[in-house]
Amino acid sequence: xxxxxxxxxxxxxxxxxxxxxxxxxxxxAIPSGVPNTNLNLGIAILTIFAAIFGPLAGFLIGLIGHTxxxxxxxxxxxxxxxADAVYGxxxxxxxxxYKINDGKFAILQAVYFNLxxxxxxxxxxxxIAPVLDVLIHKEPVDKAxxxxxxxxxxxxxxxxxxxxxxxxxYSATRVKAGSLKAE
Length: 183
Hints:
- Helix content is 73%, strand content 2%.
- With 183 residues, it is mostly helical.
- Strand 1 and strand 2 form a beta hairpin.
- It is globular and about 50 Å long.
């Protein structure tokens, strides 16, 4: 009997995805006007990697990438790290619906992809992050939820535009099942 575990391809994807998320969060952060809340292009990478490689990869990429980013600022903000990790996990749970790996990411899949990412962004950034900010870091409720709403909205917008383009682009490179015929 063969052992079923995480593939080498997925392990490599986790490493590359976490590194890309870290670099984009750290060096391409665009201030939003709300304290400690940036337009984050790394969320598109986290989303596309989770949509391609599944929930475990999404969870670990969010966890590792965000933790590395926070460590370079001197301290880990666990409420937001956990929110990113859960975001990656939840996006990855629906990876078969997106059909990105099958080369079949089309308009219908893009609609599903974006409806799911908007709901998951709301769960992560309007639910998990602010509640944990208040519980763990004793942040004021109004500040925590303002940051969460802004982060969730910005993330949803980034994924809607950049994430969808990445999904279409990557899917176009994949060979559709049954498209090769013997002569």
